[in-house]
Specification:
Length: 1213
């Protein structure tokens, strides 16, 4: 137990601990050892007890167990060390345990006034309360102190100490108040200065006041500690590695995931996929279990087995463990040999079972549900072209975030006084809420009753309105402002056991998942097919043999028997009116097969379900069935063995086994797949998954990054990857010499694995959704969301460290020309700002680092103070619009200027990043010494700012020309000054513009944007964002995690198999897929046909008739023009003869090559189109480029009606 005595609450002890924590801990430990651990009345309450106190203690004996638990938990915290991030996580969990015990004690009325006899005088009662509180918080303080010793950021630890110091001082003052009360009566208590706000609080019983204060301080310390701990851990692991995952899960879920221990049984294709995805996600431990010997057929799906392992002596688990462990050094990957026992079940958080007999699934599911701490249970299997997943998280599972979406916010514009109250939101954008959402209000003026922070459930009545289930008729009238934000409310999801779910796979009021929109009812049919195949295994000890008609027939009979039994059982048991024998037959025929697309798809799904055990996202409830029967040939193919890794017969354990892919698709299909020429663009996470899948499938050629290609050929030595095919160059307009027309025309298929929108759009354009933009004025002057300030900060980075150095080089290279062009671009205000930046670079480029810090401080002052002062000068807080409404209302949040303070961490973050980026621009050494930079920044003298008469746009519709008239004259003066100064300086145009790189946290790029975005948010009282949120948004990173990457790879790989013989397929064989694993939701549908261009009697754009020629053409159609290097006139004549049109306008990209309405363009008719293109675009055509794509606007030769034709492919070589 933990001793509480005067020394523990004395300020001298606190000071000593801050100076030397180890010495303080030794003193306490010696005292603890001397006290003993038996008598509650002498160890919990160390002071001599009065009669009244003993009476209270006697009445509390029935709660001794709760007190003991708190004390024991506190003692565990005392003795625990914190030598690593794992230990720190353990401390946090233990501290959470203390908090839960305190909550339990409150429930047991241990801390309630009703638990104490009303006859007892208050001093003893209050003392008892205070001591129990301080007992727990004493242990809390120790845990936080130990945590602080390991944290790199001392500021967070300092904040924790400050809060706890205030708590301990309050306790000391409580003791003094008790002494006064005993001496002069309880009235003296009212005068005790506890540092608690408000007279009302001071008049409350001291224990209640202290309890409130303690819980408040504890909550603040806990949040600070958790956030700092997780941030510190992520920095130690590798934030670049985890950035996309953190962006998806968030820090809290990552913390929970890092505590999990997961058992995976069965290591064929599905099991190894689950293990790989999960290890990359980062749980504490993954235990592999599979004692079956590896077989040759496993090579088609298990990417960690190779033919070099022949003969396969080790088990599959042993063969895979070492390579799986290499995926993530922060995950312990271990083996379990022997059966899965009850003891093992109780040691893990969750288990995933594949290739497991039905009876074993039932047994292990019961053990999971009956464990002291419920263990998550997932069963899954790939049976050829069919698969299933079953999830059971027990009866008491709580989901804390059903969809993982960022909470939406809207600006309140009005609230009615009625029942139920109707809330109206500002019409600048739709609120985006849904029925049943819970929301909280803040900053509402007038109807302040809504600002209580209480979640309120809503019912949507329109895109800009909703009702709250609350009577607002007696509330104060709404005046103005207010923000309403979605909030995540935990909800309970009960699960059935596996045994019960076999007969009742649907919960009341729910339907089974329907992944494919064309297959309604398929899940119910697959339920009986899979149960029949598993029953066959129970009966025969193995799955049905491949393409064994007799075994398939037996499975059909078993399915019918199961269905008939369910019919007799009636509701709620599931049955179908008629069993589809073809479905059962397909499942049975290929049940032994494991192909890579299905294993990858299901491996991603299952691994994501493991993550959901943390309470993040909605788990599968409870069965998911999925099939790829479109891949099944219409007739039996030539599937007999031919001696390759995909089908070679092999005698293992006395059984001849066939490779699975050819058993399903056939040898001729495999040969066509092997000869396929495929271009894989991108070899990051998604690209490497594709490469692995293509290697497993035997695709002929793929690749971009050499290292990834080496790994793929190790998986499949027969894979054809020429060294020239593994190209480490960017695919884009600037590399068309490498990826020329011949290259693109020679491909069978392109697979896009790029992780940014721009690159994807470029590749899509060669093979043949705009982002929602933020209004310019919103970004520039009137942000109301963190996304706005991040966009502003990203633009500030571009302006300061990209555009300014470029313009500086232009000025240094040719000052006269630059200044002449400057006078024609932008307002005088923007010109002045650009000139000042260039002037500073020229003057300070050879200065010490002090100059770079000064530059950073001046930029801080201009961006976060002066510009805000100017904005408020132009639009004062009391400003009203021409319509008489308040200017600063709705989406326009009134800002407040920030004065630079070198002691503020965020201010210093900005200075450190800006100064070092400025140094990089000038090719000067960096300086990461925060203490030195802080000292330098504090010495910078900042001049007082006086606002000017300036015009600023109120919104994007405002046509006002922004700027200040006085700035035009300032530009002229500064231009003259800089021209003269340059004559005396010997400087070169060698400034180094930054190249924005989001994935290198050491380059200060994201650090600058994060600091600038959050400072801007402070200006406008917008909640700030963490580093990872800024990184994801500013870097336009598409969130990606191993689970969804694997799942998408499986779906794409299945579609690639269909491309091999696409000429023989129907369009409905192909699938578009929309998937969100968070909900979870799968929507597969057939692709839509390309849009056809047809003739119209009236086109709203041209305001008249339009002809399509040819009728019904699509974007895939082209007009082929093979005239060679022809002139413009020859080209126009060609279109006249071939398409019967007169060309009015012709363009290539953004370049207009010919306009018949411009008389001067007639002289272009004799020029070659290639020469025109080079002249107008100021670019040189690559020798490897053989054609141009041209767009024409034309009219009919006979009646002059506008004619639309396909894009023209002008082949000039």
């Amino acid at each position: 137990m933990v001793r509480v005595d005067n020394s523990r609450v004395d300020s001298e002890w606190l000071s000593m601990k801050e100076a030397d924590p180890d010495e303080a801990e030794e003193e306490v430990a010696e005292g603890d050892a001397a006290d003993g651990q038996t008598a509650l009345d002498t160890t919990v309450l160390a002071d001599p007890l009065s009669d009244e106190e003993r009476e209270v203690l006697t009445k509390l004996r029935k709660h001794e167990s709760e007190v003991s638990k708190v004390c024991s938990a506190a003692q565990e915290l005392r003795v625990k060390g914190a030598q690593s991030a794992v230990d720190l996580r353990s401390l946090v969990e233990a501290a959470d345990g203390v908090e839960r015990l305190l909550d339990a004690a409150e429930d047991a009325e241990l801390l309630q006034r009703e638990a104490v006899s009303s006859q007892v005088d208050w001093p003893a009662e209050e003392l008892k309360y205070a001591r129990v509180i301080v007992l727990a918080l004493d242990a809390w303080e120790t845990a936080l102190a130990k945590g602080k010793e390991q944290l790199t950021a001392e500021a967070a630890g300092g904040a924790i100490y400050s809060s706890l110091g205030a708590l301990l001082r309050s306790f000391r003052e409580l003791r003094e108040a008790e002494a006064q009360a005993q001496a002069s009566g309880s009235a003296a208590v009212q005068h005790a200065d506890l540092g608690l706000a408000g007279k009302e609080t001071a008049l409350r019983p001291l224990s209640e006041a202290l309890l409130d204060k303690a819980l408040e301080l504890k909550g603040e310390a806990l949040q600070s500690f958790r956030t700092q701990l997780l941030n510190d851990e992520m920095s130690k692991i590798d934030t670049n590695l985890y950035s996309r995952q953190i962006g998806t899960y968030g820090m809290e879920t990552m913390g929970k995931l890092m505590q999990m221990k997961v058992l995976i049984s069965g290591l064929r294709g599905l099991g190894v996929e689950v293990a790989k995805n999960l290890i990359l996600a980062g749980p504490a431990q993954v235990i592999l279990h599979d004692e079956a010997p590896a077989e040759l057929r496993d090579l088609g799906a298990n990417f960690y087995l190779t033919q070099e392992d022949d003969p396969f002596d080790p088990s599959r688990a042993e063969a895979c463990r070492a390579q799986l462990a290499e995926l993530n050094p922060y995950v312990a990957v271990e083996l379990h040999r022997g059966p899965i026992t009850e003891q093992l079940v109780q040691q893990v958080s969750l288990m995933v079972l594949t290739e497991t007999p039905q009876s074993e699934l039932v047994r292990l599911n019961k053990l999971c549900r009956s464990a002291p701490n419920p263990v998550g249970f997932i069963a899954a299997d790939c049976l050829g072209l069919a698969s299933f997943v079953f999830v059971d998280y027990g009866d008491a599972f709580m989901c804390h975030d059903k969809d993982g979406e960022e909470p939406r916010s809207a600006i309140v514009s009005g609230v009615t006084l009625e029942s139920p109250g109707t809330v109206h939101t500002h019409q600048d954008r739709r609120h985006g809420f849904q029925d049943g959402d819970s929301v909280v209000f803040k900053e509402v003026q007038g109807m302040t009753q809504l600002n209580d922070g209480k979640p309120r459930q809503i019912k949507v009545t329109g895109p800009y309105s909703f009702t709250i289930d609350e009577d607002t008729s007696k509330y104060s009238a709404y005046i103005s402002d207010g923000i309403v934000t979605q909030t995540k409310v935990p909800h309970h999801i009960p699960f059935f056991s596996y045994e019960q779910s076999l007969a009742q796979p649907r919960h009341p009021g729910e339907e089974m998942h329907v992944p494919d929109m064309a297959k309604f009812g398929r899940s119910e049919q697959l339920h009986f097919a899979v149960q029949a195949v598993l029953a066959y295994r129970e009966k025969h000890g193995e799955l049905p043999a491949v393409r064994d008609a007799a075994a398939a027939k037996e499975c059909v009979d078993l399915a019918k028997q199961i269905n008939e039994a369910r019919k007799k059982g009636g509701n709620p048991q599931l049955f179908v009116e008629e069993l589809e024998e073809e479905i059962v037959t397909k499942v049975a025929m290929f049940a032994r097969c494991m192909i890579c697309p299905m294993a990858a798809f299901l491996g991603g799904v299952v691994a994501q379900e493991v993550v959901k055990f943390t309470g993040k996202f909605s788990p599968i409830h409870q069965f998911l069935y999925f099939d790829m029967f479109e891949l099944c040939p219409a007739t039996e193919p030539d599937w007999k063995p031919k001696g390759c890794r995909y089908d070679e017969p092999r005698s293992i354990c006395g059984k001849d086994l066939l490779k699975d892919q050819i058993a399903i698709l056939g040898s001729s299909f495999q040969e066509a797949l092997a000869n396929m020429k495929l271009f894989l663009v991108g070899a990051g996470a998604l690209g490497c998954e594709f490469l692995k899948s293509f290697a497993m499938m035997g695709v002929g050629c793929a690749g971009k990054i050499t290292a990834a290609c080496r790994a793929a050929t190790a998986m499949n030595p027969a894979m054809k990857i020429d060294a020239r095919d593994a190209m480490e160059v960017r695919v884009g307009p600037d590399t068309e010499d490498t990826f020329d027309d011949t290259f693109w025309d020679g491909l069978h298929c392109v697979v896009n694995a790029l992780d940014n929108i721009q690159a994807r759009l470029y590749v899509d354009s060669r093979c043949d959704p705009p982002e929602e933009s933020i209004p310019l004025c919103t970004v520039k002057h009137f942000p109301n969301a963190i996304e706005h300030t991040i966009e502003w900060a990203r633009e500030a980075f571009e302006q300061m460290f990209v555009e300014t150095p470029r313009e500086g080089n232009s000025f240094l290279g040719d000052p006269t020309s630059y200044l002449q062009k400057l006078s024609t671009t932008g307002s005088g205000t923007s010109q002045l700002q650009r000139l000042k930046s260039i002037k500073h670079i020229i003057e300070k480029r050879t200065g010490p680092f002090d100059a770079f810090v000064e530059y950073a401080v001046f930029e801080f002052q201009e961006k976060f103070h002066d510009s805000i002062v100017q904005l408020l000068y132009t639009f004062p807080l009391e400003h009203v619009t021409a319509e008489g409404t308040k200017f600063w209302s709705g989406p326009k949040r009134p800002p407040a200027p920030i004065k630079f303070d070198a002691n503020d961490d965020l201010h210093l973050d900005f200075v450190v990043a800006a100064a070092n980026l400025y140094a990089a621009t000038l090719k000067a050494p960096e300086n990461r010494d925060r203490a030195m930079l802080k000292s330098l920044a504090a010495k910078v003298k900042i001049e007082d700012f006086k606002p000017k008469e300036m015009k600023i746009k109120a919104d994007d519709k405002d046509t006002t020309a922004e700027g200040c008239m006085d700035d035009d004259e300032a530009v002229r003066r500064l231009s003259t000054e800089m021209s003269q100064k340059l004559k005396t300086l010997q400087v070169k145009a060698d400034l180094q513009p930054a190249e924005f790189e989001k994935d290198d946290d050491s380059n200060f790029h994201i650090h600058f944007i994060a600091a600038a975005a959050n400072l801007r948010a402070r200006n406008y009282k917008i909640p700030e964002a963490d580093f990872h949120k800024v990184k994801m948004t500013a870097g336009k990173i598409i969130p990606a995690i191993a689970t969804t990457t694997a799942m998408a790879t499986g779906l794409v790989s299945a579609e690639l198999l269909k491309v091999v013989n696409y000429g023989e397929r129907k369009v409905e064989d192909f699938k578009n897929a929309f998937v969100t694993l968070a909900l979870p939701l799968w929507v597969l549908s057939e692709p839509l046909p390309p849009v056809k261009t047809v003739s119209k009697e009236h086109d709203p754009i041209v305001m008249g008739p339009v002809k399509a020629r040819p009728e019904g053409f699509t974007s895939w159609d082209k007009v082929e023009c093979n005239l060679g290097d022809a002139t413009l006139q020859e080209f126009l004549d060609f279109l006249t003869d071939e398409v019967q049109v007169e060309v009015m306008i012709m363009s290539s990209g953004n370049a207009c090559l010919y306009n018949a309405y411009v008389p001067a363009h007639k002289k272009r008719l004799k020029e070659k189109i290639t020469s025109l293109w080079e002249t107008i675009t100021k670019q040189t055509l690559s020798p490897k480029k053989s054609y141009l794509t041209l767009e024409v606007s034309a009219s009919d030769l006979d009646d002059g009606v506008d004619v639309v034709i396909p894009t023209v492919k002008f082949q000039f070589r």
